[in-house]
Amino acid sequence: MLGLGANARYGKLALVANMTGVFGQYIYNNTVNAVGNVGQIGAGKNIALSTFENPIKESLGNPAAANTRYLEKGNFLKMSNLTLSYALGDVSTFIKGARVYVTGQNLFVLTDYDGFDPEVNTVKRGANQVPSVGIDYLPYPSARTFTFGVNFNL
C-alpha cells in the first residue's frame, strides 16, 4: 500500500494533494468472466459484443469456471483528493480569514487493470454480505466529485 501527500503554498494560493496506490496485488476480474465468456450464450445469457465479434472464435462449450485467465495485475496510483484554495483574508470587520476553495476527489487512476476501478471490495450476495477482497464483480466505479466552498470566521 502506498500513500503520498503534498502541501504547497505560494502567496495566498495553497495546494493540497493526496494520492493512494497499491502495488503487487492481483484482482480476479469476475465481471469479464460473467459477460465476456462466449460459453454464456449457450446458457441464454448476454455476452459482450466484442467477445461475440472477436475474429478469434472461442468454443461455445468453454466453461465459465474460475481460472487464471481472468486474473489481472491490480497495481494502481489514484489521485484521491486535490484541493486548491485562495486566501481572501479579512473581508470586513466581522468576516475574518475568508478562503475560497475547490476540491476534487477520485480525479484519475493510473493502472493497466481492465475493470472500472482496481480498488475493489465487492460484497458477495448470498454469503452473509461478506466482502470479497480482490474479486471484481459488477461494482460501481468510484464517483468523481467536485466541491466548491467558502470558509470564514465571524
Provide an overview of this structure.
- The radius of gyration is 23 Å and the shape is elongated.
- The model has no long low-confidence stretch (mean pLDDT 84).
- It is mainly beta and 154 residues long.
- Helix content is 6%, strand content 47%.
Key descriptive features of the protein:
6% helix; elongated; mainly beta; 2 helices; 154 residues; five-stranded antiparallel beta sheet
As a whole number of angstroms, the C-alpha radius of gyration is 23 Å
* Spatial strand arrangement across the major sheet: 1-2-5-6-10
Structural class: mainly beta
Largest sheet: 5 strands, antiparallel
How many strand units? 10
Molecular shape = elongated
Please give a quick description of this structure:
By secondary structure, the protein is mainly beta.
Helix/strand layout:
Elements: E1 2-10, E2 13-22, E3 26-29, H1 30-35, H2 49-52, E4 71-73, E5 76-89, E6 96-111, E7 121-123, E8 131-133, E9 135-136, E10 145-153
Parallel strand pairs: 3-9
Antiparallel strand pairs: 1-2, 2-5, 3-4, 5-6, 6-10, 7-8
